[in-house]
Specification:
- This protein is mainly beta and about 220 residues long.
- The chain has a single domain (about 5-215), classed as Porin.
- About 10% of the residues lie in helices and about 55% in strands.
- It is built from 1 helix and 14 strands, in the order αββββββββββββββ.
- It has one helix at about 5-25; strands spanning about 30-35, 40, 45, 50-60, 65-75, 80-90, 95-100, 120-130, 130-140, 145-150, 155-160, 175-185, 190-200, 205-215.
- It has a 12-stranded antiparallel barrel. The chain has a two-stranded antiparallel ribbon with strand order 2-3.
- The radius of gyration is 18 Å and the shape is globular.
C-alpha cells in the first residue's frame, strides 16, 4: 500500500471529521445521479475518446457539501477520472478543495495514488454582477485556471484561460470558449429527461468539440 504524505493524511482527516459532523446533524440535502455525454471535454480539453458516463453523489448540511464525481469511458478508453471534494458556500463566494485521481483501465477502480498530493485543486466561485467567475489552482503543479461565464437568454457562454498543463507552451492563454444550452425531453406526463449540449472551442490548440448529454 502506498504511504500517505502529511498533506494526504490531513485531507483524509478533514473528510473524516466532516463526515462525523454531518452524521450528528440532520441532512439538508443529498443527491445521486449520473450524466451520459458523447465526449468528456473539461476546460477546453478532451479526455479519452467516445462516450462517458459521469456518476456523482453529494451530501450537504447547511453550507457544507461533500461529494464524489467520476467520468468513465464506455469503451474503456483510459480517460477515466474519480474525484472527491469538500465545498463551503460563504454566500458571497464558495471555496472548494478537490482531489483528482485518474484510474487506469481497472474497471473504474482507483488502485494507485488515491489522495495523491499532485491532484489537489483549491477553487473558488463568485459573481461579479451578471458574470460568474471560477478560479482554480493546483497546489502542487501550480496550474492556474480562470473562467468567466454569463447567460445570453437561453444560452450560456463561458470563456476560460489557463497556463502550464492547460496549454501546449505552458504560457497563460485562452483555452476554452463554450456555448451551451439545455432542454427537457418529455417522456411521460410526469417525467422529462434533461438534455444539454455545448459547442467548445480551444483557440490555443485550434480544436473544437460538439458535446451532447443526458442527465438521470
Amino acid at each position: 500500500m502506498k504511504q500517505l504524505t502529511n498533506k494526504s493524511l490531513l485531507f483524509v482527516l478533514a473528510l473524516t471529521t466532516a463526515f462525523t459532523t454531518l452524521g450528528t446533524q440532520e441532512a439538508n440535502a443529498q443527491d445521486i445521479g449520473a450524466d451520459v455525454v458523447s465526449r468528456y471535454v473539461w476546460r477546453g480539453t478532451q479526455f479519452g475518446t467516445g462516450a462517458h458516463i459521469q456518476p456523482y453523489m453529494s451530501y450537504a448540511v447547511g453550507s457544507l457539501e461533500l461529494g464524489a464525481w467520476g467520468s468513465f469511458g464506455l469503451d474503456n478508453d483510459g480517460g477515466s477520472e474519480l474525484d472527491i471534494y469538500a465545498s463551503y458556500d460563504f454566500g458571497f463566494a464558495s471555496l472548494t478543495v478537490t482531489n483528482y485521481t485518474f484510474p487506469a483501465d481497472t474497471g473504474g477502480a482507483v488502485t494507485d495514488d488515491f489522495f495523491g498530493v499532485e491532484g489537489y485543486e483549491v477553487s473558488t466561485g463568485f459573481d461579479l454582477g451578471p458574470v460568474g467567475m471560477t478560479v482554480g489552482y493546483f497546489t502542487e503543479t501550480e496550474d492556474l485556471y480562470v473562467e468567466a461565464g454569463f447567460s445570453l437568454g437561453s444560452l450560456d457562454l463561458a470563456v476560460g484561460a489557463g497556463d502550464n498543463v492547460y496549454t501546449s507552451t505552458g504560457d497563460f492563454a485562452v483555452v476554452n470558449i463554450s456555448l451551451g444550452t439545455s432542454k427537457d425531453i418529455k417522456i411521460t406526463e410526469e417525467y422529462s429527461l434533461p438534455a444539454f449540449g455545448s459547442f467548445v472551442y480551444n483557440p490555443e490548440l485550434e480544436t473544437a468539440y460538439l458535446v451532447f448529454g443526458l442527465s438521470f
